[in-house]
Each structure stands twice: as C-alpha cells, then as structure tokens.
Design a protein that fits this description.
This protein is mostly beta strands. The chain has one helix and 18 strands. The strands form six sheets. Strands 1-7-16-18-5-2 form a six-stranded mixed beta sheet, with no helix packed on it. A three-stranded antiparallel beta sheet has the order 8-9-14, with no helix packed on it.
Length: about 200
C-alpha cells in the first residue's frame, strides 16, 4: 500500500527518464538507431530544506522497503491555472500521445508540464508533455508525451494536472537522517516509478 508523505519544502527536484529504449548499431559502428519501447518511466531526485528532528520523523516512510511512497512533485515557476476536470478521452490509446477531455476551454499545456494518470490498477503514473498544446473550445486536446504510455488508459480515467505526485520506491541518500550539531536533518532521496 502506498504511503503518502507530508508536503515538503524543496531545495531541488530533478526529474530523469529511466529509459527502456534500445540502442542498435550497425556492424561497422557507423549507423545508430534508437528503438522506443513501452516501460520508460520517471525518477525524481529530491533535496529537502533542513528539517527539525520532529519533522524528519514524518519522513521515516522513505526507509520502508515493502511499500511505495507518494511525494508531491513541485513545478516551481509554472503557472498551473485552472486546468479543469481532466479525463482520458477514449480507450485503446497507445504510443506517445494521449487524448484528453475536460480541460477548461483554451487551457494551455506547456512543454514540460507534468501530470498524473491514475490507472485502473490504482497506481499513479507521471507523464510529461513533450510539446505545448492548447485545448479546443470543447476542452479537448491531444497531448504529446516524452515517454510511451505505460498502462492502458481507459476512457474516463482520472488525469491530474494541478497537484502532481510521484508514486514509487524510495532510495535514501546515506546520511539523510543524520542529525547535525544544530539539530537539523538534510534529507535527500530518489523516488522511482514502478513503470
């Protein structure tokens, strides 16, 4: 069962793609091709502002080995606005585009805007727009993605643009729960999606 961690004061949050693509080279090494495959997903490396000992205790679920954790993903400097009540628009979608309904008409999705798809398995997955898109007057748009869809979206599945979170397994940097001489903890960790 996923454990929701408390809201955080971040120093930094860096997304990276954990790639499932295949690099292929010719026998002479002169030709290179990249084959995209389903399974590429995200990991975020986080650094929190220093926490008191009492605050750090609220983050002990990062050390849980059995369950995933859920952490808010900051999109600092990105004006989110009012995206609407967004849902998947049609089942059977695959590849690197997602048809979406329920946007506020003329809502602008910026290149690099992260959002969540909450799949039929209950798992929250992150996708990031690879190009800017503006919803039409009916609130529909097809958003191009950096990675291929990892879970088959069903018509009406929930999409969350305003409050994005990452769900996955945590790796905590050594020394994160070390209390310094002034009583502070400097917690750094990575969350990787299950894919």
């Amino acid at each position: 069962m996923a454990k929701q961690l408390p809201p955080a004061r971040f120093i930094s949050a860096e997304p990276t793609i954990v790639s499932s693509a295949i690099d292929q080279r010719s026998a002479t090494g002169s030709n290179r091709q990249k084959g995209l495959r389903k399974g590429s997903h995200y990991a975020y490396e986080f650094a929190l502002e220093p926490l008191s000992h009492a605050e750090a205790l609220d983050w002990l679920d990062l050390r849980n080995e059995a369950d995933t954790v859920i952490v808010d993903v900051p999109q600092m400097g990105l004006e989110i606005g009012s995206p609407g009540t967004t849902r998947v628009n049609g089942s059977g979608q695959a590849g690197t585009n997602l048809a979406i309904k329920g946007f506020t008409p003329s809502y602008a999705v910026r290149k690099g805007h992260a959002f969540n798809h909450i799949g039929s398995d209950g798992v929250r997955r992150i996708y990031i727009a690879s190009a800017a898109v503006i919803a039409d007057g009916s609130g529909n748009a097809t958003v191009p993605l950096e990675t291929m869809l990892n879970w088959p979206p069903l018509n009406g599945d929930v999409l969350e643009f305003a409050s994005v979170k990452i769900e996955g397994f945590a790796s905590v940097e050594k020394g994160s729960f070390l209390q310094d001489g002034n009583g502070w903890h400097s917690i750094r960790f990575t969350i990787e999606e299950i894919g």
